[in-house]
Amino acid sequence: xxxxxxxxxxxxxxxxxxxxxxxxxxxxxxxxxxxxxxxxxxxxxxxxxxxxxxxxxxxxxxxxxxxxxxxxxxxxxxxxxxxxxxxxxxxxxxxxxxxxxxxxxxxxxxxxxxxxxxxxxxxxxxxxxxxxxxxxxxxxxxxxxxxxxxxxxxxxxxxxxxxxxxxxxxxxxxxxxxxxxxxxxxxxxxxxxxxxxxxxxxxxxxxxxxxxxxxxxxxxxxxxxxxxxxxxxxxxxxxxxxxxxxxxxxxxxxxxxxxxxxxxxxxxxxxxxxxxxxxxxxxxxxxxxxxxxxxxxxxxxxxxxxxxxxxxxxxxxxxxxxxxxxxxxxxxxxxxxxxxxxxxxxxxxxxxxxxxxxxxxxxxxxxxxxxxxxxxxxxxxxxxxxxxxxxxxxxxxxxxxxxxxxxxxxxxxxxxxxxxxxxxxxxxxxxxxxxxxxxxxxxxxxxxxxxxxxxxxxxxxxxxxxxxxxxxxxxxxxxxxxxxxxxxxxxxxxxxxxxxxxxxxxx
Length: 507
Prior knowledge:
Blueprint: E1 8-13, H1 17-28, E2 33-37, H2 44-48, H3 51-65, H4 70-73, H5 85-109, E3 113-116, E4 118-121, E5 126-130, E6 137-147, E7 151-153, E8 166-167, E9 181-185, H6 189-200, E10 204-209, H7 220-232, E11 235-239, E12 243-248, E13 256-260, E14 265-268, E15 270-273, E16 277-279, H8 286-289, E17 312-314, H9 325-339, E18 355-357, E19 363-367, H10 370-375, E20 381-386, H11 391-396, E21 402-407, E22 414-420, H12 424-436, H13 442-446, H14 456-471, H15 483-495
Parallel strand pairs: 1-2, 1-6, 2-3, 6-17, 8-15, 9-10, 9-15, 10-11
Antiparallel strand pairs: 4-5, 5-6, 7-16, 12-13, 13-14, 18-19, 19-22, 20-21, 21-22
Helix pairs in contact: 1-9, 3-5, 3-6
């Protein structure tokens, strides 16, 4: 029994990353906690349909297709010639089962009660639980509530979804076979991730998006590089185009017909509809609790993750930006701490966090981009390192990878890091640590990195940037050598046929 007659001190609705962390944090504070999960498995979208399955799916694709080795052994190299959906899902199922077991074990160890039911608010503190079978309905009361119900794929009512020929990202794991051609409607993060995965499998992919550039929130150089690599993977880009209608025609080899507003008509075996996600809050009856939501069913919150109702918190994807599993964990922890009177030093870690985009190749970014700094009128310099110039890049066969740093020319403080290539989502944390401590890129220039590693890109990029910086710095007085020494040095160079060039030294 919770405090002051409530059944629970904290009820968490949803068992995704944010819900897990909120529940465990409250339990460690000695509070009575219950997690309500309407699905038959814990973990939320993250574990069952989103982050974990999609990234495992990607790893299976890269392994079985031999994508990582094509730079060495040629574009025809494949680990398995005929790849089926079962081949890909086998690995996914193994990982998902392990993740679910870990989560259940964590709940048990921390004495968090897990209730499989659909939650509905009856009033701000009273929640009705609906379960299948003989239990039917019952009611519980909660002193504090954390809504962590996540999101679901947006579905237009006029689109003929069937889960096989026309489907969303939530349906990918239920596909019965791999299509030979697919149209991806919406080139957001999820859409372009799956587009590049299917392309790596040899599926003919067409991407349709109304925006003129790919992932425009990225640094423009990274976005342009990704566009080039994607196009080289035989992906057809239809940017600046809008979908007017989607039909399914029976009895033909390419039954999915997508008509664009420009008049173009596209045909494929399947279509992935990926136009964003909406909050999964409809079943909650938020109005009974007085909680407000926006037009996409997301819940606005303050800096403490409180909704407009003081004791009702919301965390994770249901609150919108940044909609990352990594930030969701910290949001849940911060909400639980605030709910029970503890101080948060970093308020959910929403100040400095990295993005990981698991396209093929993967992308990760943190801090400011060139466009953002230009718009803010902040001076900056850049330094770059291409994977093909790094020994490790040659070893792994990644010839398109790029690491780019942005720094202040005055203080030399690191302002942003943008990476495209193998291991980008791991490499980004080196830059993150330096930025978190207001470090200068001189550290990268002077540091000793293991050789050969991709981490060396930081040193190469820093030296590249410092060379640029020094080229524009005020000239220092030159200590000229004696006339005899000068003539001697010149004669030596001329004797071996070398040309002396004064300018930028590229390291």
